[in-house]
Every structure is written in structure tokens, then in C-alpha cells.
Design a protein that fits this description.
By secondary structure, the protein is mainly α. The protein has one domain: MetI-like fold, CATH 1.10.3720. The protein has a two-stranded antiparallel sheet with strand order 1-2. It is found in: Cell inner membrane.
Amino acid sequence: MSLFGGITTEWYARAWLLLLPKIGPTLTVTSMVLVGAMIVVFPLCHALARRLVPGGAVIRQITMLPLAVPGVALGLALAASDPALRSSGVLLVVGQLLITVPFLVAGLVPALADPDLVEAERVAATLGAGPVRRLLTITLPSIRLSLAAALLMAAALSIGEFNLSFFVVSPAYQTAPFALFSAFLTQRVEVGAAGSMLFGVALLPAAIVAAMLARSSLSRKETS
């Protein structure tokens, strides 16, 4: 459909058709990354915040390495580690989880180290509350804003990641950025540009909400 003779939405329609089949795999991979974050990264953040592991400062610096190492290098290292896992999509999830670790650690460790939270957990423990009950009734509710912001940022990073994913992706788990890459590779520049615009617009709300949640969490700490 053309508007005013020179403006058309045709490329956006074609880009949407190109992106549509990738939405399912993209959401599947992102969901697995977020589950992995809660299972693996959250306990690590808790241990770092409470100084439960020796060399915590060194470990925290190590978690920042994905920011310094190019995604291409990480992707090649993962692809060479166990090529058999590539077809299962495991390497893709592990790789995307790796790049989210610095942001999860930066968002969760300060929240979990909050003195008021530590004191509330200590009081609950003296009253007989077990670890699981303290986690569900005190820890998670207290850090809900920081946790939501960190997970939203991790989701946005996972959805948009391409450099690392290119080397470990399985045909069954090709995510949305691969549709854009395919468009540019086949010289469908207009479709690729329109798809990039749609992709950016789709990710923008998540980034804005994550920033607002992080700011609200900081304001709440300052006023408490």
C-alpha cells in the first residue's frame, strides 16, 4: 500500500513476513536464557553479595569479561568446545547467557547486598524461617524491581544478539537477527532496513521499562 505517492509500507509488510517465523525460536531461546539466569546467575550473585565465596572480588571481575571479549571470539570458542551440542541449541543458550552475566551481576549484587535486606533475612532466620521461605517471602519481594530490570535487560540482549550466535546457532533455533542478516545477504536492503526498524521498535519498550525499574529501585533505596 502506497501513501502520498512516495511513501510505502510494502517493505514493512515483507519484513514482518520475514521476521514472523523467527519469533517462536527467538522467544524459546530467550526464555531458556532467563531460566538459566535464575538457576545459575542468581545464586552466584547471592554468593557474591553475601561474600560466601573466597575471592569474590576476583570472581566479580571475571564475570565482566564478556564485555571485553568480542562476541566473535566467544562464539568460536563455544563452537570449538563441543560441536555436537550445536544442533541441540545448547551452545546458543549458553552463549547468550554468558553475554548477559555482566548485566545481571551489576543489577543484582548491589540489591542483594542491601543491609536492610540482610538484616530482615537474619531476623526471619532467628524466627525459624528456612532458606526457601526467606527467599520467597523476603528476598525476592525486596529485590523485585532490580530483578525485573535485570531480567528485562537480559531478555533484550538475548533477543538482539547476533555476533556470538552466528557461530553456534542451530537451524532449528535461528533467531530474529538471522532473518535480518538473510535479507541483507540476499541484497534485499529495503526489507532488511524495514526489519531492523521493526526490530528496534520492538526492543525499545523493554529497554525503557528496564531503565525505569532500575531507577525506581535506586530511588526506593535512597528514600528508605
